Amino acid sequence: MTDSDLDLVYTTLCKTLTNEGEPQAPLYLARLAMLCLTELDDPQRALSLIEAARLPAATAVTA
Amino acid sequence: MNRPFKPYPFSPRRHEGVVPPLVDGCDPLRRPVAIVGGGPVGMTLALALARQGVRSVLIEADDSVCTGSRAICISRRSLEIFKRLGVVQGFLQKGLPWAGGRSFYRDAEVFRFAMHHDDEQSLPPMINIAQYQIEQLLLDEVERHADLIEVRWQTRVTGLEQGPAQDSRGEPVRAAGATLALRTGNTAWRMHADWVVACDGGRSTIREALGLKLTGTTYEGRYVIVDIDLNSTRATERLAYFDPPSNPGSTVLVHKQPDNVWRIDYQLRDDEDPEAAVKPENVLPRVQSVLDSMGETGEWSPIWITVYKANALTLERYRHGRVLFAGDAAHLVPIFGVRGANSGIDDADNLGWKLACVVNGVASPHLLDSYSDERVFAARENLSYGMKSTEFMAPPSFAFTLMREAVLGLAGRHAAVRALINPRQTHAIAYTRSPLNEAAADPAGSFSRGPAPGAVLPECRLKRMDNGSSVDIHLTDLLEPCFTALRFGAHADPAQEHAWQELQATLTRQGIPFKAITLAADKTSQAARPTVLDHAGRLHDMFDATPGTVYLIRPDGHVLARWRDGSAADTQRAISAALTI
């Protein structure tokens, strides 16, 4: 992805998430995560991304 | 916290408001161009017009250059414009050059950016300089052109009427124009002008007088902007702190300015009252904690506090009959990415040569529609970058806030997301869809690289041949406010040389500013009297140029046309097509 591709994807995701609404955000992001992980078709990569996305213990999102 | 305020280290000169001799409340002298607003945009335009020998009057409501915290970042592109106008030296002497910056999330550095800078450059990617200094440097030059630029201080516009002017028998005459209603002190008076350019800022009186509205997006997120006096040897760079320990939940930006002035911007939380937020008792402790976290222990004083809300707005068109709009009067871009003053200076540069050609009678007024087309296009590009920066710096919804937290948290270990933190600083916009490009089109696909029509030129080191010896110069040193034909390695052909000399003579006679420059890749080439040596061959390479290639550059430094094998006749046709569009 080029920088502008990344920009487009990021902004589209933010706007879509805004439209889904805050209460639905975790479910929407969970669905997106499942789609991305299955699209990978690589269990080792998928497992390492699941690990990489973990939050440092002290900085859990409170939103 | 009790900390007395200091003034800015600058004392503006005050100027009298003087009304010219009037006949029936009207200045009998009709002006070719009246510029409303004596800020950076209005003064740049007046200087650009003066360079083409066109008179203008600058109408300024205040009695001095601006005060307060305004623009502080001037881009390389703006410096190139100032260089062509002959004022860049003061900016380089006063401004603090910088080339990049760092972003921090909590207490870790997560992103570093560098603006394009290499050995070919003659100008820094950016300088920091206060707007009062920008205006003073431009005003000094304006005053050196007092024969062509008249400044009317303390003069407000109270109304504007457009319409065909009438002759003494009441018959409409061909030259339409506009009449400005003005007030200087207690005197109300009128002035007729062929053209009026509104450079009167975000709250433009002219825009209101014509009933025009800016459209686009207004953001809710607010930033407090604080200028302080602090003596520090810290390097000049852009510093961004997201959710710093000193101001949890906030975003803080820090910029160094000349004369020990520092700009600190921080975002207000949605639940903070903006009126209370700018009170010193609320601002000073937050500034202190920012300085503490940066390790800045020196004595400091507040100078100025204001609150800012991002807008991304523009007019649909910048030409309305005899009235043109430039700068904040035409568009409001968010501060993030520093496109405000810089895009206004570009407006003035684009409009300057076109309006001069129209006033001098060498171009049709339709050329001014291309000003609107090109600069509305540029504003939309600037707005799109500015909105992306704003969405990151002042997230407009829970989703942007949440996603930003994710990106910042990942950026330390995952390089792939870092580009999203890039502040997307201003850059010159290529007029890829300009009507002028089409008018002067080159055969498609004949170049594999190099600036296409509508683009600006990259910088390059060159040598000027001067009586057998060579002097180090840069490509931007060759650009003046005129059409410039860059002739690459042209073979010595007496007939062609004669045609180029004829072209120069013809255009000079017609009052069209033009010069041709012959560039050769090496001294021993067969080039016809090379005036400039591309000793390393870099410019030839960057421009995909071969012997016979011609690049025709507009007076604002954008490419008008290029030919693999160009001639004086091609050049003449392209200039003529642009001016009679």
From TrEMBL, chain A:
It comes from Paraburkholderia aromaticivorans. This is DUF2783 domain-containing protein. The lineage of its organism: Bacteria, Pseudomonadati, Pseudomonadota, Betaproteobacteria, Burkholderiales. It comes from the Bacteria.
From TrEMBL, chain B:
Its cofactor is FAD. Keywords: FAD, Flavoprotein. Gene3D superfamilies: 3.30.70.2450, 3.40.30.120, FAD/NAD(P)-binding domain (3.50.50.60). InterPro entries: FAD-bd, FAD/NAD-bd_sf, RIFMO-like. Signal peptide: none annotated. One of its GO terms (molecular function) is FAD binding. Transmembrane segments: none annotated. Residues 32-381 form the FAD-binding domain. It comes from the Bacteria. PANTHER family: BINDING MONOOXYGENASE, PUTATIVE (JCVI)-RELATED, TRK SYSTEM POTASSIUM UPTAKE PROTEIN. This is FAD-dependent oxidoreductase. It comes from Paraburkholderia aromaticivorans. The lineage of its organism: Bacteria, Pseudomonadati, Pseudomonadota, Betaproteobacteria, Burkholderiales.
